[in-house]
Amino acid sequence: MPQLNPSPWFLILLMTWLTFSLLIQPKLLSFTSTNPPSNKTSTTNKITPWTWPWT
Questions:
Q1: Rounded to whole angstroms, how far apart are CA atoms 15 and 9?
Q2: What is the pTM of this model?
Q3: How far apart, in whole angstroms, are the C-alpha atoms of residue 2 and residue 41?
Q4: pLDDT reported for residue 31
Q5: Side-chain-side CA neighbours of residue 6 (13 Å)
C-alpha cells in the first residue's frame, strides 16, 4: 500500500511547507489590511437599575 510509505510524501510535504514559508507567506504579509484599526474612545453606558413592580 503506497499510503504507508512516507518516503515520497515526506519530501512533498517538506517542499510544500518550505515554499509556503519562504515565498508565499512574505508576499501575503506585505499586503495592508483593508480595515485598519482606529483609535476610538470607548463610551461608557449608564446603567440604571431595574425597578421591580412588587418592591
A1: 10
A2: 0.44
A3: 60
A4: 79
A5: 3
10-29: pLDDT as tens digits: 889 999 999 888 888 888 88
Report the sign of the C-alpha dihedral through residues 29, 35, 40, 42, in that order: negative
Cell 512533498 sits on residue: 12
What pLDDT, on a 0 to 100 scale, did the predictor assign at position 23? 87
Secondary structure of 1-55 in HEC code, one letter for each residue = CHHHCHHHHHHHHHHHHHHHHHHHHHHHHCCCCCCCCCCCCCCCCCCCCCCCCCC
Cell of 32: 495592508
Give backbone dihedrals phi and psi of 46, rounded to 5 degrees, phi first: -80, 125
